[in-house]
Write a structure and sequence with these properties.
It contains 4 helices and 11 strands; from the N terminus they run αααβββββββββαββ. It is an alpha+beta fold. Strands 1, 2, 5, 7, 10 and 11 form a 6-stranded mixed β-sheet that branches. A 3-stranded antiparallel β-sheet has the order 4-8-9, with no helix packed on it. Strands 3-6 form a two-stranded antiparallel sheet.
Length: 195
């Protein structure tokens, strides 16, 4: 009986692979992805290494974009704006999804930022010809929340923001200049859309 249990354990280990192989495998969903996983293998579209490289080459990067933040509406302690990017490169590129967005002080140090994605609008592919623009909607509040002070700015005021295009790692630095962001720096951001 003991021999059968040992054999069963050895078979289970050999079927699962080595501990290093298991450690090399992802353990959860990627934080970059905004799409749900397919429910069956039949739903996974075939991709070739060439098409994957082409898609990566076509993505808009910090090097091919310039950006700015502009206010759009204000009222009752709420502020609305847009993060607008322009393709300054010599070739078309694509955006699909959400930007990263971290508020920074004048010396480039992080200011409290709690970025939350909204689906108004949600992710869709945006093709940007040279000179074309796309935008993401922003919403925040200037009303102190929780233990934030009411007799001075609720949070340190940002001078700039570091914004990372979807599926990229390098940021674009844009001027903020729109006052403090209360609620611990909570900013709601939509996916990019053609502007």
């Amino acid at each position: 009986m003991r021999r059968l249990v040992a054999c069963g354990a050895l078979l289970a280990l050999s079927a699962c692979g080595s501990p290093q192989q298991a450690a090399d495998q992802p353990t959860g969903p990627s934080t970059q992805s905004t799409r749900s996983s397919p429910t069956s293998a039949a739903e996974v579209p075939p991709t070739s290494p060439t098409s994957a490289r082409q898609a990566a080459a076509d993505r808009c990067t910090a090097e091919s974009l310039s950006g700015r933040v502009e206010p759009t509406d204000a009222g009752a302690g709420n502020r609305h704006g847009r993060f607008v990017v322009t393709n300054t490169g010599g070739a078309a590129c694509t955006l699909n999804g959400y930007s990263g967005f971290q508020l920074l002080d004048a010396s480039g140090q992080p200011v409290p930022t709690d970025l939350q994605r909204t689906d108004d609008p949600g992710p869709t592919r945006v093709d940007l010809a040279p000179g074309a623009t796309a935008a993401a909607n922003l919403h925040w509040t200037v009303v102190p929340a929780g233990g934030e002070p009411v007799d001075r700015p609720c949070e340190p005021e940002a001078a700039n923001a570091a914004a990372i295009p979807p599926d990229e790692t390098r940021p674009i630095t844009v001027a903020w200049g729109l006052g403090p962001v209360c609620g611990g720096g909570k900013i709601e951001i939509s996916a990019f859309y053609a502007a």
